[in-house]
Amino acid sequence: MDKQELLEKIAFNVVQGRVEAEDEGFDPGLEGQPAVTELVEQALEQGIDPKEIVLASLTESMEQVGEKFERNEYLIPDMLASAECVGAAMDILSPHLMKAGVESKGKFVIATVSGDLHDIGKNIVAIMLKGAGYNIIDLGTDVSPERIVQAVKEHQAPYVGLSALLTTTMRVMGEVVSKLKEEGLRDQVKVLVGGAPLSDQFAKEIGADAYCKDAFHAIDSLKSMAA
Amino acid sequence: MLVIGEKINATRSSIKEIIQNRDAAALLQLAEKQAAAGAGYIDVNVGTGVGTLEDEMDSMQWAVRTIQDSLDTPLCIDSADPKVLETGLKARDGRPSMINSTKAEQKGLDEVVPLAQKYEALLVGLTMDESGIPKTADDRLRAADKIVAACEAHRVPLKNVYFDTLVMPISTDVKQGLVTLETLTQIKRKYPEAKTVLGLSNISYGLPQRSRINAAFMQMAIYAGLDGAIIDPLDTELMAAITSGEVLVGKDRHCRKYMRAFRHRT
Question: Which of A44, A57, A91, A125 might form a disulfide with A11, Cβ 3.0–4.6 angstroms?
C-alpha cells in the first residue's frame, strides 16, 4: 500500500469507527479487515511522518464525522466509536510526535463543574481535542471552582473547558469565571463552556469566551482563538 | 447470537411435500430466505416419518446438495439417526456443518459425538438422557457432564459444543422457563468455553400472543449467556428481541448492530 492509500485507509476506518480488526464498522461487512491501530503502526513502520498521519487521517476524518453528526446521519455511538479510534491512534502517535519535537497546541484543562456528575459529553470533547493536538488535563466530574482555578494556575493553561448538564449546576460556570478574575488569571485563559442547557446568551452572561454546542464546535472555536 | 434457521423441518407438512416431491426450487427458496433474514446456519431435517432409513438418507443427501450448490450459508444437519447425520455431513464435502444433535445416552455418545470430531463439525448436545427431559436444572447439568466426558474422550473441543438446555411449555408447568435458564447459567459457569443454544418457541406453546413470550424469554436467555437460537429468522419480532437484548448485555460494541438494524425505522 502506498502512503496516500494508507493515510486514506486510516481516515476511512476512523469514519467507520473501527479500532481493531474484529470491530464492526458503521457499514456492514468490514469485520476482519485491518483497522486503525494496525494501520497506524504500519504507517509508522513505513516512515510516514506522524504529524502527517494526524493531519491527513485523523483531523480530516473527524471533520467528516462532525458533518455526519450534524446531519443526524451519525448518532452518539457512531461518534464515540470514531472518537475512540482517534484516542487509540493518538496513544500510538504521541511518543513519536514528542520525539519529533511537535509541540502540543497547548494545555487544555477540562472539568464537569461541582454538583454535576455527567461525564459523557466532557469525555467526548476531551478525546476529540486530544486528537486535534491539545494536551488535555482532565479533572473529572463534580469539580469545585477552586480546584479548576488552581489547575489553570498550576499548569499555566491557556484554555479551560467547563461542562454542565443541569440548569442548577450551569451557574457554577459563572463562579469559575469570577474566581479566575479574582486570581488575576482571566486574561491568560480562554474559557469554553458546553452542555445541553447552555446557550450563546448564557455564555455571554457569565463572561465565557465561547459556547460550544459540541466537540466539533469546540475545535472550531479553538482554531479561531489561535488565529 | 448464532441464529439457526429452523424452517426446513419435514415434520411440517408443507416441508414434507417439498422433500417427497424433490422440489428443489422451493427448498432452496426456504434456505435463501432464512439466510437473507440473518440465519448463520440453516437447519435441515428431512425426517418425514414415512419410508425407510435409506429413504431418509437419500433425502438428506438431496437436500444438502440442493442447498449448498447455490448457497454458502453453513448447514445444520438434523436427525435422530447417526446414519442420516453422517450422510448429510459427508455430502457437505468439508464445508462447515453443525450436528443436531446428540443426547446424553450411550448410542449418541458412541456414534454421534465421534462424527463431530471426524467432520470437524459443531455439535448440539441436548441436556437429556434415555429417561427423557430432566425436570430440574441439576439433572440437566448431569446430562451435560456426560456429553462433556464423551467429547473429551473423542477429542471434540468444548468450544464447538452447543448445549441445548431444552425448553418446555410454561402452559403446563409455569416453572419450566426458570429451569431452562438456570441450566443455561450453570453450564456457562461450569464450562465457560462451551456454547449454549435453545429452540425457543416451545416456551409459549398453548398460549396466546406467543411472540411476546418468545421475545421476553429470548432476552432473559441472552442475559443468562445464550450463544445460539434455533428459530424462524423471518420472525422479525424475535430477531429484534435478539438485537435489542444483545446490545443491553454489552455484546454489541458501540451499539453497531442495533443501530444498523433500526436507525432508519421510526
Answer: A57
Q: Which residues in chain A have their CB less than 8 angstroms from residue B260's CB?
A: 26, 28
Whole-prediction pTM value?
Answer: 0.80
- Does the domain at B2-232 match CATH 3.40.50.150? Answer given as no
Average pLDDT of the residues of chain B: 96
Cell numbers given for A113? 463543574
The answer to ipTM > 0.85 is: no
- Flag residues of chain B having pLDDT under 70: 265-266
- One-letter amino acid at A209 equals D
Q: CA A75, A78, A79 angle in degrees (round to 5)?
A: 90
Task: Identify whether residues A115 and A222 lie together within a single domain.
Answer: yes
d(CA A210, CA A217): 9
Q: How far are the Cα atoms of A146, A147, A160, A172, A195 from residue A143, in angstroms, in the given order?
A: 8, 7, 13, 10, 15
Q: Which helix (H) or strand (E) holds A159?
A: strand A159-163
Omega before B97 within 30 of 0, i.e. cis: no
> A220 — contact with chain B (CB < 8 Å)?
no
Q: Among candidates A177, A174, A166, which has minimal Cα distance to A141? A: A166
**What are B's interface residues with A at a Cβ cutoff of 8 A?**
253-257, 259-260, 263
Q: What is the pLDDT along chain A (227 residues), one digit of tens a residue?
A: 899 999 999 999 999 999 999 999 999 999 999 999 999 999 999 999 998 998 889 888 888 988 898 888 998 889 889 988 998 998 899 889 888 777 788 999 999 999 999 888 898 899 888 877 889 999 999 999 999 999 999 999 999 999 999 999 999 999 999 999 999 999 999 999 999 999 999 999 999 999 999 888 898 899 898 87
Say how many domains are in chain A.
2
The CA distance from A128 to the nearest CA of chain B, in Å, is 17
Of all residues in chain B, the one with the smallest CA distance to A80 is B254
Give the per-residue pLDDT at A175.
Answer: 96
